[in-house]
Amino acid sequence: MIPPSFIQDLLNRVDIVDVVGRYVQLKKGGANFMGLCPFHNEKSPSFTVSPTKQFYHCFGCGAHGTAIGFLIEYSGLGFVDAVKDLAQNVGMVVPESDDKIPPAQRAALQAQSMALSDAMRIACDFYRQNLRSAPQAITYLQGRGLTGEIAAKFGLGYVADNWDSLRAVFPDYEAMALVECGLVIDRTDEEGNNRKRYDRFRDRIMFPIRNAKGQVIGFGGRVLGQGEPKYLNSPETPLFQKGNELYGLFEARQAIREAGYVLVTEGYMDVVALAQLGFPQAVATLGTACTATHVHKLLRQTDHVIFSFDGDNAGRRAARRALDACLPHATDNKIIKFLFLPKEHDPDSYVREFGHEAFEQQVRDAMPLSQFLLNEVSGESDLSTHEGRARVQFDAKPLIQAMPPSSLRLQIVRGLAQLTQSAPTEIESLFELSKPVARARIAPPRSNRPAPVGLERQIIRLMVAHPSLATELDESALAAIAHFAPDRAEMLTQLITASQAMGAQANFAALAEHLREGGTEFETLIAEIAAESESEIETARMELAGAIRQTKMKILKSELEQLAATGLGSDEARNRYREIMLQQDALRRQAEAEAANS
């Protein structure tokens, strides 16, 4: 876990305008910067970046967050990777509490990673340069209908049919980094002697594979001619694990947001050709089955994923593996579909033969996950027999058990129950489903906490906007806050504790990032504050003092009414009554003095 103090320090050093400005064209507009929102399609800029709050907010779609949140949403990075990326840019090293690697060893690993990244970048530039003087490769790409613009967008290159082409750009061709990143191969005899080094890729169209930050981490090479294998991938390396990466995702991010969905295909050429033909929202798995990591990455980019597979047996098997990977992520707010083209077509050939609109219709008509699942488990069984229906349930059980409790799971359970002449409750009981949905009469509320109102909301809101004020609260203020309803007091205690831990340098961006990690309870307030202009700290300090004073007055008034109801029959009660009157008077004078000085 990364310490909160590091996150705070990082956000104090990073300038969110610079971070967002790498991806969005920003123009100064008053105190803030404006641009077209990268998270939804718009023609007039409603996306603002505040250098004072160190926060971004879109008035169109409501997206908002810190520099860390922007990288997570825009690049699809995980929280830790986003923090590491920002830290690297400002010369900070991310501490990890569970990191047992000695500093010297970690430094060596970082140096190795940089050496591998540099090697891949140099090789990519070399391959791209080669393509310009390779007429046979250019002819092949033109024959596939690709333009120079698309080739440049995806960084396509070519490597000649030589054993050591890379000697031309790597003076130290014997460097171990070239083996470790998969660019060359060392071959030795049975005794481990007479080592001979040669290039892994020869006479191939080169497709660079980029990570979420746009760095080249691997290659796919398509052979020219009839050689085998037709496509050759980089091996697994410290930079590249094919079960974690998707080809074209870096290039497709903006198009995915604009289209509202991502199209997952089976190969490099599908992705590049579809981009040429008007479907730039396509990505591909890298010669491996779709994994849960792939699905997780895709759902960070969009809530709508469509898998496109050939209609042959191999395509069906690939679709089934994708289904298995998707089930843990199949919730009510996600749409996952499966598109099966005729056996003789891949996406590229289908669009070229039938046109853009025909393929769009295929996308719209793609099979929903629920239907595909039921088809898979029932396809080969005789539903007219008890044995056939039992077999369907047997095959469906592990699939439905992999799904989270949701309305979608309930719909599939109902569909399965209808197929197998059962009741939904019987299916849920037989499958031992966690949190059965069919038995629930009323869905549980999203939260048992009503939204804060009145003074409570005002105090919480001021503390979120200006967390440094938490360090100024005295014991009487904390005591007043403790009189709030238990849920409200708990919220404020959480807020004050987090803010005080950050110290006098606490700011809105750092606190918002901390609260985001803890859940969505403060999300509405954060969105409101992000959308408003920056408030002055002195004004906020006076408003907070006034709200706490009113809270104290309410507490004293309530106690006064309780004492009066007893008849003030004891000396203790009468003395307390006088004390409260004096405290109320002091609070009124304090309010008058502050009003006179304002």
Structural features, described:
- Strand 1 (27-29) and strand 2 form a beta hairpin.
- This protein is of the alpha+beta class.
- The chain has 5 domains: 4-89, DNA Primase, Chain A; 103-233, DNA primase DNAg catalytic core, N-terminal domain (Alpha-Beta Complex); 249-365, Dna Topoisomerase Vi A Subunit, Chain: A, domain 2, CATH 3.40.1360; 375-431, DnaG, RNA polymerase domain, helical bundle (Pheromone ER-1); 454-597, DNAb Helicase, Chain A (Orthogonal Bundle).
- The protein starts with a helix and ends with a helix.
- It contains 25 helices and 16 strands.
- The longest helix has 29 residues, at 103-131.
Kindly list the characteristics that best describe this protein:
598 residues, alpha+beta, DNA Primase, Chain A, DNA primase DNAg catalytic core, N-terminal domain, 5 domains, five-stranded antiparallel beta sheet, five-stranded mixed beta sheet, globular, DNA primase, magnesium, zinc ion binding
Briefly summarize what is shown:
A zinc finger (CHC2-type) spans 37-61. This protein is of the alpha+beta class and 598 residues long.
Q: What's the overall average pLDDT, rounded?
A: 85
**Count of the separate structural domains:** 5
**% residues in beta strands:** 5-15%
Poorly predicted ranges (pLDDT <50, ≥5 residues)? 439-453
Class of the largest domain, according to the CATH hierarchy?
Answer: Mainly Alpha
Which percent range fits the helix content?
A: 40-55%
Radius of gyration: 31 Å
> What is the assigned CATH homologous superfamily of the largest domain?
DNAb Helicase, Chain A
Shape: globular
- Separation of termini? 45 Å
Family: Belongs to the DnaG primase family.
Function: RNA polymerase that catalyzes the synthesis of short RNA molecules used as primers for DNA polymerase during DNA replication.
Keywords: Coiled coil, DNA replication, DNA-binding, DNA-directed RNA polymerase, Magnesium, Metal-binding, Nucleotidyltransferase, Primosome, Transcription, Transferase, Zinc, Zinc-finger
Cofactor: Zn(2+)
